[in-house]
Amino acid sequence: MPHRVRAPQAGERDGGRHRPRRRVEKKSIEDAYLTGEAMGLPVWCTDQAGPFQTVPHPGQSWEPEGQPARQPHEYLRDGTAKLLTLFHPADGRVRVEGVATCPNPVLHGWLKQELTAVLAAMPAAVKVASRSDWERWQQGLSIKPTLLDDLPPLKMLLVLDNLAGHKTPEFVCWLFAHGIMPLYTPVGGSWLNMAESIQRVLKRRALEGQHPTTVAEIMAWFEAVARHWNAAPTPFVWGGKRASRRRRQRERRHRLGGSGACTPAPLSARLESDLWPCPTQMTH
To answer: Which domain holds residue 96?
Structure first.
C-alpha cells in the first residue's frame, strides 16, 4: 500500500539499510581467505548440499556415435540424499558424507568427528593462547558468540552458513574449546562459502547424465567422486567480486603462441600487408 512505503532517508540507499554490516561481515571472511593461512590459521569451509532425488539427471556422457544416452520417462522417487561437506581450499581436499536426513545431531556429530581428525593431524600449537587472536576475528560480526573465559590457542577458522543450528551454545562452545573460530556468512551471502563451489563440482561429476535408483546409490557416487578428487586435488583461491575482478583485469597478461611469453597488452592482429602494401593480381 502506498501509505506504508517509507521513503529512503538522507544518506541511505533504498533497500540498503543492512548493507554496511554485511560489508564488514563479508570483509572478515575475505580476510580469512586471503590472510588466514599466512597467519598459521587453516581456513576450512562446511556446507550441506541437496536434497538429491532418485530421478534422471540431465547432462553429457560418452556414448557411441549415433547412439545417444536415453533416460526413462517413468521413474520412482525413492527418497532423497544430502551431502555433508568439509572443504580446505588451500590444498583442495574435501571430506564428505552422504546422509538421508540432516538434523543437528547428525550434522554436528559428523562435523565434530571430522574436525577432531583434522586437528589431530595438525602440528602441535606452539603459540601461547591470546584472547586478542579470537577477538580480532569477531570484529564486525553481527552475531558475536560469547567467548569462553578460558580459551585455548586459536587453531582454525571455520566458514559456515548462518543457520540457527550452527549457533547453539553446545556446538559453539565445542568449537571454542577446540580452538576453532566460526565465521558465519551473512544473510544472502552464501557465495562467501567456497564449499558451495566444490559441491557443484562433485554434483556435476557424480550425477550429470545419470539416473540413480536408490538413495544409497547417490551417496556412494558422491563419496567415490570425492575420493577420486582427493587423489589429485585442485587448490581454490579467493577471487572475490568487483574489486578482485578489477585487480585481475589490471594484472592480466596476454599469452603469445610458440612459448610461455606474454605481453601486458594484446598485440594488433594486423597483417603484414597492412603495413607494407604490395600489388596483387587475381588469377581466378
So the answer is: 37-60+73-120+129-231
Assess contact for 233 and 198: CB atoms under 8 A.
Answer: no
Residue 162 sits in a domain whose CATH number is 3.30.420.10
In a domain, 181, yes or no: yes
Structural domain count of the chain: 1
Per-residue DSSP letter, 88: E
| Within a domain: 4 | no
Asked, for residue 268, whether it belongs to a domain, the answer is no
Write out 124-142 in H/E/C secondary structure.
CCCCCCCHHHHHHHHCCCC
Q: Is 200 helix (H, G, I), strand (E, B) or coil?
A: helix
Rounded mean pLDDT for each run of 10 residues along the chain, 284 residues in total: 45 45 66 86 91 82 77 74 93 92 91 94 72 77 73 89 87 91 85 89 86 88 93 85 64 60 61 47 53
Q: For 14-62, what is the HEC assignment?
A: CCCCCHHHHHHHHHHHHHHHHHCHHHCCCEEEEEEEEEEECCCCCCCCC
Q: Evaluate whether residue 253 is within a structural domain.
A: no
pTM of the predicted model, to two decimals? Answer: 0.73
The region that residue 225 occupies, defined by phi over 0 for left and psi between -120 and 50 for alpha, beta otherwise, is alpha
